[in-house]
Amino acid sequence: DCIGLDGGYTQHVGEILEQDHQLTLKNFCFPICKKRLQPLHAEEANFNSMFGGFRSIVENTFSEL
Question: What is residue 28's three-state secondary structure?
Fold first, then answer.
């Protein structure tokens, strides 16, 4: 299983992993943050775009429920 997070929740992943030893970082998916004054690589920007599209689909599904 995998949980998709936006950037605001990534700060809590470490705490969650400490509390539940069955989870790993592979159970979480979140956008790649760019480093200050450095652009994202093309692959990273593509991942963020695809992840944003996935989140939009999920949010749209919930809005229709």
Answer: strand
